[in-house]
Amino acid sequence: MVDINFVLDRLDLKFKRRIPNIIQSESSECGLACIAMICRYYGMEIDLVNLRREFGISSQGATLQSLIEALINLNLKTRALSIDIDELNLMKKPCILHWNMNHFVVLIAIRNNKFIIQDPAIGKRTININEFSNSFSGVAMEVWPDSNFKKVKKISRLNIRTLLNNITNFPSSLLKVLCLSFLIEGLNIAFPIGTQLIMDHVVISSDYSLLTLVILGLFVFTLLNAALRFVRAWVSLFIDTLVNVQWKISFFDYLMKLPLDFFEKRKVGDIQSRLESLDSLRNTLINNIINGIVDGVMVIGLFIMMTLYGSKLVLIVMGFTLLYIALRVLMYNKYIRYAEEYIVKSAEANSHFTETIYGIASIKSLGLSLSRSKNWLNLNIEAINSNIKNTKLSMFFYGANSLISSIDHIIILWIGSLMVMDNLISLGMFVAFNIYRSQFSERAANLINMLLEIKMLTLHCDRVSDVIFTDTENYQPKNALILPNKSMDIRIDKISFKYDVHSMEIFSNLSFSVKAGESVAIVGPSGMGKTTLMKVMSGLLSPTSGNIYINDINVDTIGLNNYRDRIACVLQDDKLFSGTIAENISSFESVKDDKRIVECAILSNIHEEIMKMPMGYETMLSELGGSLSGGQKQRLMIARALYKQPSILFLDEATSHLDLKNEAYINQSISSLKITRIIIAHRESTIASVDRVLNPWEAIAKLERRSQRDVSKIND
């Protein structure tokens, strides 16, 4: 029997449905972002965090086939076509387009030769046919739900309440600020009553004693108001600092527990912008929670006071207030789109700047300074233009609010004056009503703006959630596995690795062991996955299948944190950090061992060169290594690894920049420590220095050939 709900949904007989704007977090997940947008359009509330868990995409990106497989798993049917631009009108929208040969976008609609697309990299765009023709690769894919499609909700979003509850002393501090705020607002409400007393009683009866009493009362209220405001500002500063420190520490600690591939798939500026989103959350919440509660109570209180003074005039005030609310709500979607666009483009500009600084030597040597400068300028102009759009909207709202308030004031003056002349209200009541009206309009506008700003926090919450809901590495309670400098054996048991569910395996079913104190060189042709294997062995990447054992203990059981305490690595892309040479060797220990620093430098054959420097071990280094040569940097990194007193030392081309004499000295020095060494190298001299040479891929190839011979014998 045909599912009528499926048929109706396929025919799209509903009123207009919106395509949400979902910006990709990783540089290669445009395909997943397109899938998320399509799913949301058809009613499945799913975000990138959950899609990433189910269909993780490697840093090399997704193919059309991998997108089709993911869509089928979500019970969505697909039809991929090679198509001309003029045939796109015939396709069911929204559909996925291949873009610039390296990207995916969602086509929403075609109107008057204008193409409306949702670009996961930058957001919603409307482009002309020429620009579309230059970017469209000629491949499009229709997507629609099948009969098993379910409108479920899979959203991992940060809970603001949980965030605030984890802040020490936050509830009590917030209560203090609220109490102070209500006292201040109570004094503000009393001021118009004093004005009314002077106009309706003091002036008419020429009562000098009452005048003196009222003026003294207002003066005392003013001093008390100022004192309360100072105390409130101080307590608010305390709360702001408390939240700022605790949130950022928690965020950074969590960031450090995330796996390596999280960072490899993202740009530096994007990760930094997510930390900045915490500032936006803090500023909005700390200021707006208090102000919002106070403004909400004040709006109710002022509304009651206005009703007591002039019930007919209240209707006019409420009418203009509702008009402002309607304007804000109508423009909300555009406002949040521009805000997200600005955040994304600013992050791109910051990433470009950071990459340029880190690659300055290559940029100068290749003569790329001008092109990098132009690219950075273009990215900044795009970010500034997005900010200008947002600023224009803010200016419009400010102007609209001023205009509405002014017209409201004029009409109130007109009708209120008529009521005074008709003796319906006194002059003092009318003046007091005007003061209350002014406060009400201001507080109501602030409350509306605050509610929309809190609504906009979903944008920043989603950006922070992308980090917080990413699964961390396997950490376990601290456990001293073995004494420092005591070697451990390591066994690799049938491990395989691939970057995502759709990509090919880098290696599969590898098994070998290294005895305690043994030195082994892993060899093989370039591109076979030796560096990837070492990253898996050192816990930087998680194997797709299989296990790693140290002293016959599974690494998963003890936790990566305990495992890393007993190993040290020198990888090809290792970095030195800003600080002194001594700090870099000791990995910035709070209490460093100066004797051990010198010993490790001697073992790495860098001690004499350090002592020739004017500042010796206190010589400052920048993040880029300063004036050190490639060989000096490598020896400092080896010294840093030895300072840890590891049980297993992983070296990936760690002596590639050294001459044979230096290399031989370091190899002999490390051999004397009797620790387990696993080396990746291409130099014959390095390979000759080890106890055993291991080629896991050759061993697997021999096994496969032997299996094939056995099968052929059976068949014979």
Automatic annotation (TrEMBL):
A biological process from GO: proteolysis
InterPro entries recorded: AAA+_ATPase (IPR003593), ABC1_TM_dom (IPR011527), ABC1_TM_sf (IPR036640), ABC_transporter-like_ATP-bd (IPR003439), ABC_transporter-like_CS (IPR017871), P-loop_NTPase (IPR027417), Peptidase_C39 (IPR005074), Type_1_exporter (IPR039421)
Pfam families: ABC_membrane, ABC_tran, Peptidase_C39
A single Gene Ontology CC term: plasma membrane
Domain ABC transporter: from-to ranges: 490-714
Segments crossing the lipid bilayer: 177-198, 210-228, 285-307, 313-331, 411-436
Locations listed in the record: Cell membrane
Recorded superkingdom: Bacteria
Domain ABC transmembrane type-1: 177-456
Gene Ontology MF term list: ABC-type transporter activity; ATP binding; ATP hydrolysis activity; ATPase-coupled lipid transmembrane transporter activity; peptidase activity
Keyword terms of this UniProt record: ATP-binding, Membrane, Nucleotide-binding, Transmembrane, Transmembrane helix
Residues in Peptidase C39 domain copies: 24-143
Name of the protein: Colicin V synthesis protein
